[in-house]
TrEMBL record:
It comes from the Bacteria. It comes from Paraglaciecola algarum. InterPro entries: Cell_Envelope_Assoc, DUF218. Residues 24-184 form the DUF218 domain. This is YdcF family protein. Signal peptide: none annotated. It holds the Pfam family DUF218.
Amino acid sequence: MIKHLEDQYDVVPIKSNKWKETQGIVVLACYYFEDDELPFVSRWPNCSMQRNLHAALMYQAHPIPVYVAGDILGRNHSKPMAEHNKSFFHILGIPKESIVTAPKGRNTQSEVSALAPLLKGKYISLVTSASHMPRAIKYFEEQGIKVLPVPVEHMSNKIIEPMLGLPNAHSIYRSERAIHEYLGLIYQKFFR
């Protein structure tokens, strides 16, 4: 179910010159556990860790501005997601002046709306989960922003072999993510 979503866009390696033609790296928010008792790496769910780490590696290979959005996500949180991501990038060596934040947006559509004024006329590298890419690109294109998809957080191999077995928790999670994205695409197409 999820493979169809993930395979719509090619992987763009960090060594590729393709993304180096863009004018910025846009990283969509996922989530952050605002808990100082946890180690730094444990505060970032897999989707956030992979998106942010890949964007930081891209920046290290070719420094261009990094754009992040996201409002306060949890009821007891004190900082917007954009600020948490900015801290992540700064810890990994990206200068604060190279990180552009839009501390608004609680979902993809509102994050894109918050970033759109900053990205008008730019060609951007969009870093987000592979399964989320089709929906995210559509929101950016609706704002007139040219996008190079840079998918990460793949949940399926590029080459799969059929096999019989019992469902496991990881398979159930992949199915849940696929259903979430398909419902999001239906909403995007018919209910906005």
